Amino acid sequence: MSFRLKTILGIALIEAILLLALITMILDYLKSSNYDALSKRALTTATLFATTTKDGVLSYDLASLEAFVSEVLKNPDLKYARVLGPQGQLFASGGDEQALQRTFKQDLQVEQVSDGIYDTFANISEAGVNYGRVELGLDIAPILAIINEAQQRSAIIGLIEMALVALFSFILGSYLTGQLKELRRAAKGIARGDLNVNVPVKGRDEIADVAKAFNSMAKNLRIASDKRNQAERELQELNQSLEARVERRTAQLEARNKQLSAANAEIKAAQAQLLQSEKMASLGLLAAGVAHEINNPMSFVISNISTLERYQACYQWLLTHYRSLANEPDVEKRSALLEQINAKEQEFDMSFIEEDIDDLLKDTQEGSLRVKEIVKGLKEFSHVDQDNKQVLYDINQCIESTLKVVNSKLKYHCELKLDLQPVPKILIAVGEMNQVFLNILVNASQAVKEEGIIQVSSRLEDGQIVIEVKDNGEGIKPDVLTKIFDPFFTTKSVGKGSGLGLSISYGIVEEHGGTIKVSSALGVGSCFRIELPVSPPT
Ligand SMILES: Nc1ncnc2c1ncn2[C@@H]1O[C@H](COP(=O)(O)OP(=O)(O)O)[C@@H](O)[C@H]1O
Ligand SMILES: [Mg+2]
Question: Which of 70, 165, 363, 472 is 20 to 30 A from 29, comparing alpha carbons?
Answer without folding.
Answer: 165
